Amino acid sequence: MYRLSGQKSKIEAIKTAYDNGEDIDLADYTPDEVAGALKLFLRELPSNVLDPVVQDVDHVVTNTELDIATRCIKVREIVDVHLEPCNFALISWLCIHISHIIDQAEVNKMSAANIVIVFSPTLELSQPTLTFLFTHTAAVFKGVELRRYVVPSLDDTQLFQLPELNCMDPAELTWQLIKTEDLLTQLHRDLHILTESEKESKADMIWSYQRQVTDIKRLLRTRAKSILKISAGDDHSNRRPSEAHDFAGLEDWESLQNVVLDTLKVEIQKLIAMEKDTRSRIQQEEEWTTMVQEQIDALPPVPDEGPGTEEDMATLSQLQSEAEQWEAANEQLISDVALESEQTIRLEARISVLEDKQ
């Protein structure tokens, strides 16, 4: 498994079908062809699946001063906080899948060492890192559940009947959010091939799904705030009936905490992205400020015997005004970065509290 190559034309056919969103029955292909399609997908990823924490993970897994359990915890903390949700989903799914392959090594001849040799160049990850992830998957990705996802079709008339969100637990809400966003993606993708009348007929559908996405995110945030209050020391028995209803249908308190952690981690990722963008803007503002100052310095000096021409004075005044505006904008951006950093620290502290309670 994964070492033998499938027929190239069949692998390309699988890739094309997935790229075009077509239905495909993998039973029509050999295991080697399906495995080859997965390796092709991984090779064509636009960036490393562990970006931007490849070196951090490498450092932890090779740190022999730490025991295995501690290394597993630290790797999970790194990927939880810093990986994009899609990257985390992919690496966790892949590790769980490969661990199943390794469990059947007597049949498929793919031990951990053999599978690492195959996937190390494909994923562009070191062999020690992959060996650690593949052999300690249960500890590193504890609680991760693989669920089969069937892409919803816009032809399904049942999709027009929006579900009652308040009756869903957090896991169901998250699943509904994924499905609804997938439908929105399909709608926006198809807009460019529709006539004007067809676009008008789709407008109400887009608006309905967009409203549902907003409602789901708002409901998840509301429940996250409730659990944060409870985790901070509120007595569960003193909750108001409305608060109790927020958690109706939840059988596992830990699953709600996991949803809250995921929500906070997404918020942290957004703040980190905003901080990067703001720092980039600060750099641009500083460059503009420097350029304006250089233009001011390049102006000829005002003669001692009298003021310069009206044109020179007007230009100087305008440049000084622009410099002051850029400086004020720069100071505001620096203030924004400080505020976002503070928010990130608070969110990380909340995550730490929730993880300690778990």
Question: How are the SSEs ordered, and which strands pair?
Answer:
Layout: H1 8-19, H2 31-43, H3 54-61, H4 68-82, H5 85-103, H6 105-108, H7 112-123, H8 127-135, H9 137-140, H10 170-190, H11 196-231, H12 241-246, H13 253-298, H14 310-357
Helix pairs in contact: 1-2, 3-4, 7-8, 10-11, 11-13, 13-14
Could you describe the 3D structure shown?
This protein has 358 residues and is mainly α. The chain is 71% helix and 0% strand. It contains 14 helices and no strands. Helix 7 (112-123) packs across helix 8. Residues 233-253 have low confidence and may be disordered.
Keyword list:
71% helix, mainly alpha, 358 residues, 14 helices
What is the residue-mean pLDDT, rounded to a whole number? 76
Strand content: under 5%
Q: Helicity level, as a percent range?
A: over 70%
Number of strands: 0
What class, by secondary structure content? mainly alpha
Cα end-to-end separation: 38 Å
Short description:
With 358 residues, this protein is mainly α.
